[in-house]
Amino acid sequence: MEKKKIAAAGILLILACILAGVLYFCLRPQPSEGMKHISVTVVHGNGEEKVFPYDTDAAYLGELLEADGLISGEDGQFGLFITEVDGETADDQAQEWWCITKGGEMVNTSVDTTPIEDGDEFELTLKEGY
C-alpha cells in the first residue's frame, strides 16, 4: 500500500513538471518581428551613463548587444551571464554584477532570452552586492 502511494506521488510530480514546462513554453515572452528602434543606457560603476540607440531586426537583446560588442559574458545554466559592458568588467570579488532593467523594471530573463520590441528602453547597471 505504501509503495502505491509513493508511485502515485511520483507520477503526479512528473505530470506537474511536464505541465509547468508546457505552460512556460506557451506563455514565455515572444519577440516582435521586423525593424525596431530601441535604446540601451549603460550605467557604469562611477555613475557615468551612456546611451546607445539601435535600429535592429534582432529578436533578442543579447544577440544585438553581443554582435555590437557592447557586452560579453559567460554561458551558464540560465543563459548568458554578463561579465563586461562597454569595456567595464564586473569584479566578482567585490560582488559586482550587471543588472538588466527595461523601463526601470528588472527583467526576469537573461540577456539572450530578453525579447526586443519597438520602442524598448533597456538599462544595464553595474550593481554591487548579491
Notes on the protein architecture:
A five-stranded mixed sheet has the order 2-1-8-6-7, with no helix packed on it. A three-stranded antiparallel sheet has the order 3-4-5, with helices on one face. It has two helices and eight strands, in the order αββαββββββ. It has helices at 2-27, 61-68, and strands at 36-43, 49-56, 71-76, 79-85, 88-89, 96-102, 105-106, 121-128. The protein is of the alpha+beta class and 130 residues long. 26% of the residues lie in helices and 37% in strands. β1 and β2 form a beta hairpin.
Widest sheet: strand ordering = 2-1-8-6-7
Mean pLDDT: 89
Series of secondary-structure elements, N-terminal to C-terminal = HEEHEEEEEE
Compute the number of helices: 2
DSSP helix fraction: 25-40%
Strand portion? 35-45%
Distance between the termini: 47 Å
The profile of the biggest β sheet is: 5 strands, mixed
Global outline: elongated
Q: For the CA atoms, what is the radius of gyration?
A: 19 Å
Class computed from helices, strands and strand pairing: alpha+beta
Number of strands: 8
